[in-house]
């Protein structure tokens, strides 16, 4: 792991992120590479802006092969709505960009990349914004255990749907 300190913010880069980047560059399609990097940057900027708007400051960023993990420093505890706003702002930016590209007549890979990044981050899996939002909504509730079982079933159904879609498309 590489560590970079930028003022009050620490950036950590894991080997898995470097491996994912190398695999991405194997595509050898500059349009796809630029689209993916731009979409990822816009996604994370959405989170940063939402954190800032709700009184938070980014204290660390960790780049992983499975995504980016940001730690937000706050002077006070955020409300549930503020936490959800920060979590869902990244996918919202991607989906808004996809809508903007579509309205401008784009139908190529740039549109599909934005759409994919927005929708895939809303999936209910751990490590994704959708999964974190679901867990945040049920944390500390009296029926938390039953809701966790329900989320497990939703995750299993989503995974099965993804596999079936992949088999159908191939």
Write a compact overview of the structure shown.
By secondary structure, this protein is of the alpha+beta class. It is built from six helices and four strands.
Q: CA-to-CA gap between the ends?
A: 37 Å
Strand content: 15-25%
In DSSP terms (H or I, runs of 4 or more residues), the helix count works out at 6
Helix content: 55-70%
Quantity of strands, as a count: 4
The computed structural class is alpha+beta
Major beta-sheet overview: 4 strands, mixed
In spatial order, strands of the major sheet run 1-2-3-4
| Tertiary shape | globular
Give me the Rg, rounded.
17 Å
Topology:
Layout: E1 2-6, E2 9-13, H1 15-25, H2 30-53, E3 56-64, E4 67-74, H3 80-103, H4 109-120, H5 129-138, H6 144-169
Helix pairs in contact: 2-3, 2-4, 3-4, 3-5
